[in-house]
Amino acid sequence: MHVRRKLVAGNWKMNGSLAALGELATIAAAARSAGGVDVAICPPFTLIAPAVARSGGLAIGGQDCHSQESGPHTGNVSAGMLVEVGARLVIVGHSERRADQGETDEAVRAKAETALGHRLQTIVCVGESESEREAGRALERVSAQLAGSLPDLRQEAELVVAYEPIWAIGTGRTATPADVAGMHAHIRAALEQRFGEAGGRIRILYGGSVNAANAAGLFAVDNVDGALVGGASLTAAQFVPIVEAAARS
Ligand code: PEP
Description:
Radius of gyration: 17 Å
Oligomer: single chain
Helix content: 40-55%
Distance between the termini: 17 Å
Bound molecules: phosphoenolpyruvate
Shape: globular
Strand content: 15-25%
Structural class: alpha/beta
Mean pLDDT: 96
Low-confidence stretches: none
Strand order of the largest sheet: 1-2-3-4-5-6-7-8
Number of strands: 8
């Protein structure tokens, strides 16, 4: 039985400003006093360096990176560039990027390989659409994404999986604890099958309209090792109660 410390990561998406970085000090202070939980914020690329300077010890990360080290890829940012400005983690394969940028499982896996090689903690996102869930294909879809998107484990950095049902992201609808339990157990089994004992150490986050009211219930579910939080990570007032719920769980 592995004891996995909870991780609560905020994904600011294309939101935030220099002024919004004022939230970090409050979040960092709350994380320190709650104790026992890892807390991270992933702002837009332009805010990473100033966020690191004002992080108060929070881990700051990127929302994507390219799989190549450098080259003719206009508008992209490499894993090495994230590391250079102080990022400690990166999200890859978010469903919004899979949809907006047409990222395939293969592309996500290549990004994750590169990110881990740069010692970034790497959060790989998976999750089914509403129509896939309604068709009873959620487990099958997530299995295929795991098989295609997860890189082989490397010693130098930590892999994290985020289960984010697409229909629950930014909608205010959350998967039920029973659905989350079933999917996280399914993901755990896939991780153990592929990585053996090491698969039991990989943290599995839930994401999709997590907020102060539902966080404790989600953190009580087996194999929920934290949360990836979008909208409710934008202000300390909304994010800190989620961090505190993780610390209490
Ligand atoms: C996300 O974008 O990863 C997310 C879970 O968003 P929200 O919390 O707003 O649903």
